[in-house]
Amino acid sequence: MRRLRAALTPYALIFPGGVWLAIFFVVPTVVMLSLSLQSGNVADGFVFTWNWQSYVDGLTNYHDQIIRSLVYGLAATLIQIVIGFPVAYWIAFKGGRHKSVYLFLLLLPFLVSFVLRTISWQFLLSDNGMLLGPLKDLGLLPHDFRVLATPYAVIGGLAYNFLPFMVLPMYVALERIDPRVLEAANDLYANKFQTFLRVVLPLSLPGVFAGVLMTFVPASSDYVNASVLGGTNTTMIGNVIQNQYLVTQDYPTASALSFTLMALLLVGIFAYAKALGTEDVLEVAAR
Amino acid sequence: MTEIQAGAGVAGEATSDQVPAIELDEVVKEYVSHGEVVPAVKGVSMTIGEGEFFSLLGPSGCGKTTSMRMIAGFEEPTRGVVRLHGQDVTNVPPNKRDVNMVFQSYALFPHMNVWDNVAFGLKRKKVPDGEIRRRVGEILEIVDLVGREKRRPREMSGGQQQRVALARALVNRPRALLLDEPLGALDLKLRQHMQIELKRIQREVGITFVYVTHDQSEALTMSDRIAVMNDGLVEQLAGPREIYERPATKFVAGFIGTSNLLSGVVRAVNGSSAVLALGPDDRVVVPIRETVAEDDTVELTVRPEKITISTERPEGDLSMVEGTVSEVVYLGTSNSYAVALAGGAEITVFQQNAHDSTTTAERGDTVWLSWQPQHSYALQ
User: Is the pLDDT of residue B135 over 70?
Assistant: First the structure.
């Protein structure tokens, strides 16, 4: 009896999460997959017909938006690494007793709703807003200069909105480095820079890896930043999908686009993992 | 108090005809914590000879690790001078010092395999590839890790990691190797094995070893000389035999091995020895180092294995005291007796279970304890 219970315990532990995922992830995914292969319209209803045409249409009509989404996502991710790594490094190694305070400060803006934060960026960046207005009045910028509705605004918004998801995993990886390992490098004739390059950086890679996963994926499929901060030339694939679902109500195309994006992201992630030598990276991460 | 016994130790005296490998000159290290100055090392001087196996021994918090970290360059002394081979390196960073360290927790690079760990220092020193290959190969042979070059630290046992740490430091052929409690994480068997290994490796490479430990038996077994530290100061600096046989202070007597501490009033002084009064029939003679006058109170120490236990009052020029057996512990190769003296002091006696040992005192017996006067020492 006891042995039976011991054997069942792991399954009991996974049960709630498993049911949750089955209902809210597996079922919708299957429904969407089937939807992407149906044909018809909202008025007459959709029928399953193995209709691959939605995929062909999606790719032909919206390949610009797909590529743009990946480029924006990548640019935002790179900006976050550049901004986030020093922050994570500083908190991990120089934060002293106040590490948790700094982490809290980092997360504080994110207690405000995602959409509200983006809208406040819209105020900040607007053509005669509090940032550009004074600069234009002083004659430092030409009067027709704008940030809003440009790719810079959208990429900036994306980079800002997902920053904590980059900083936190990097911080965890950096914080876990044994200071004596750094002393050992220093003892073995490495100066500060070499110690960083040969020891700190490689040991922080699992954190960067996790950070990239957690920011690139949502940034590439985001639609809020593009619709609030962007213009007609910055439409991302997320906006297209949202439009297809809610406005045009062309469910098959919307679903097909979603799957296309998912497939592209998966391929990208696996290529990235392979390039970094994930086995290694995940190995270190699992320590 | 710092260099007191250095001159007296005959065993393992630093050779004086060459520049010493390491010198600490009145080195002080103070930390500031919550606005208060906390001294970790209160003024330590020592001279460590080329090729010497030198131990810093003491309880935790005695300043031994801080002293070593100042030799390595991880800590800068508040005052005083650190010299390596005659050169003042007090403010030289660790990467520019020709000493290497074996860390207590090994501090191996977790993302590198054994080979890359060991080659790390040579690569930073821009040693040519061919020579790196040769030297790493050689040192892995010395520490018996050939065939494990591709292993990651975490895939290895504690003893193997220990040897990687040793190889990683030794491969650079440092002028001195600093070892911070390197065997602390190993189990007893492995620790004893590694003690012998370390001695062998030191003989093979001929490098000065500075060894930090709180384990007195480890220090006694391996060292040429030992500095016993307590509370930021060196209590005694001498060879292992000298430290054990002639502890200079009460602290050393208590920290190294088991000691019996007795105190008595001086009844008479005869040149280099004093006669103490303990009990009515007792007779205790102790060699004295400094000027002791009649009626002074003197503390003396005598090791448990130097004492003979007997039921009759012994004959001869021995020191002897009378007492009552309060405990007998059978230890296999020896018996341990606790004997209470009339004055209240308790003395521990070890007696070998030799085939001709006749004494079998029981609890409650009145016995005589005797020892050669030269086996007891007056403490400072």
Answer: yes
Q: Do B95 and A183 touch (CB under 8 A)?
A: no
Range of the domain at B262: 258-378
Cα separation, B341 vs B279, in Å, equals 8
Q: Are A183 and B103 an interchain contact pair (Cβ–Cβ within 8 Å)? A: yes
Domain boundary residue among B234, B254, B274?
B254
* Residue A186 to residue B105, Cβ atoms within 8 A: no
- How much is the average pLDDT of A217-225? 93
User: Band of the pLDDT at B4, cuts 50, 70, 90?
Assistant: very low
B226 & B270 share domain = no
Q: Which two tokens stand for residue A32?
A: 């969407």
Domain boundary among B207, B238, B254: B254
Is the pLDDT at A143 greater than 90? The verdict is no
A61-285 classified as CATH 1.10.3720.10: yes
With CA atoms as reference, the chain A residue closest to B119 would be A188
Q: Could you give the number of structural domains in chain B? A: 2
Domain with residue B313: its CATH number is: 2.40.50.140
- Report d(CA A189, CA B85) in Å as an integer: 18
Q: Mean pLDDT over residues A3-7, rounded?
A: 85
Whether residue B284 is found in the same domain as residue B301: yes
Answer whether residue B123 is part of any domain. no
Do residue A284 and residue B94 have CB atoms under 8 angstroms apart?
A: no
Strands B53-57 and B273-277 turn out to be: unpaired
Same domain, B10 and B74: yes
On whether the CB atoms of residues A253 and A58 are closer than 8 A, the answer is: yes
- The C-alpha angle B38, B40, B43, rounded to 5 degrees, equals 115
Domain membership of residue B145 (yes or no) is no
Residue in chain A nearest B121 by alpha carbon: A188
Q: Which two tokens stand for residue B290?
A: 């400094």
**Distance (Å, whole) CA B166 – CA B181:** 12
What's chain B's average pLDDT? 87
pLDDT level of residue A119 (50, 70, 90 thresholds): very high
- Which residues in chain B have their CB less than 8 angstroms from residue A277's CB? none
Q: Where are the domains of chain A?
A: 61-285
Is the pLDDT confidence value at B15 over 70?
no
- Pairwise CB contact (< 8 Å): B95 & A189: yes
Residues B216 and B300 in one domain: no
Do residues A46 and A39 make contact, with C-beta atoms less than 8 angstroms apart? yes
Does the pLDDT value for residue B333 go beyond 60? yes
Q: Cβ of A53 under 8 Å from any chain B Cβ?
A: no
Band the pLDDT of B5: cuts 50, 70, 90.
very low
Asked if A189 lies within 8 A of B110 by C-beta distance, the reply is no
In this model, does residue B1 exceed pLDDT 60? no
Tell me phi and psi for residue A3, to 5 degrees.
-65, -40
- Reported ipTM: the value is 0.79
| Helix A151-161 vs helix A163-175: crossing angle, to nearest 10 | 40
How distant is the Cα of B28 from the closest Cα of chain A, in angstroms? 22
| B chain contacts of residue A185, beta-carbon cutoff 8 Å | 109, 120
pLDDT for residue A285? 41
